Amino acid sequence: MKGLLISGGTKVSEKTLLENIDGRYIIVADGGIKNLIGTDIIPDEVLGDFDSIDDVGREFIEKNNIKIKKYPTKKDFTDTELCLEVLLEKDADDIVILAATGTRLDHMFSSMFLLERLKKENVAGRFIDDHNEVRFISNEEVEILKNNYKYFSIVPVSKEVTLSIKGAHYDVEDFKFNRYTIRATSNQIKDDAAKIKIDGEGFLILSKD
Q1: N or C: which end of the chain has fewer CB atoms below 10 A?
Q2: pLDDT computed for residue 49 by the predictor
Q3: Is the distance from CB of 206 to CB of 151 less than 8 angstroms?
Q4: What SUPFAM superfamilies does the record tag this protein with (predicted)?
């Protein structure tokens, strides 16, 4: 089963929403319902402590008879993590998380590491907003296609990683660098695709501008 988790960060465009529905089970974290107001997209459920949903959001939920599950404000999990747990309980093996970036850096950075959890549980996971896509890569070789994204960057999570890149403007082979230096930022795919091999762990970030 494929899942789509809509978080409560900066609102994404309807275009981004439509590009990522793809027959997915849609679950919304609390105030993330703002992303669906004014669209014809109806989620399967909304959950959270409902402390960031305004009257318009509540009306949208009631009007469309959307399933809700309410949690106390004081809890051990963020609303985004609660949504993720529901999708994993439903045996989702591919999860896209939308609208998890924005002005709250504490939520954004902590949520990004949910991608590491998904990787370790063999679940495909991606963060997507209107400008970026984030994946967690770990001791593997990946191919990225030249599509809507102009740049790609590798941000190490391991203290040190070894990186090989082919098919990009800046190719490297067995290049070692650590997480407190900026050495793999704003590369570009030269032709149709680029291959990245990483020994270690990090975030692969694709950016449009």
Answers
A1: C
A2: 82
A3: yes
A4: Thiamin pyrophosphokinase, catalytic domain (SSF63999), Thiamin pyrophosphokinase, substrate-binding domain (SSF63862)
Domains and CATH numbers, the chain: 2-130 (3.40.50.10240), 135-207 (2.60.120.320)
User: Using one digit for the tens of pLDDT, what is the confidence trace for 70-105?
Assistant: 888 777 788 899 999 999 999 999 999 999 998 889
Of 192, 8, 194, nearest in space to 100 by CA: 8
pLDDT at residue 146 in the model: 86
Degrees (nearest 5) of the Cα angle 154, 158, 159? 110
Distances from the Cα of 162 to the Cαs of 102, 140, 153, 194, in angstroms? Answer: 30, 11, 14, 17
Residue 47 has φ and ψ, to the nearest 5°, of: -140, 160
Token readout for 128 is 């997507």
Residue in this structure with the two tokens 């994204």, named with its chain if needed: 149
Q: Give me the helix-helix angle, 79-89 and 105-112, nearest 10°.
A: 20
Report field, pTM of the whole predicted structure over 0.90: yes
Average pLDDT over residues 186-191: 93
- Which uninterrupted H or E stretch holds 86? helix 79-89
| Alpha carbons 37 and 30: distance in angstroms, whole number | 13
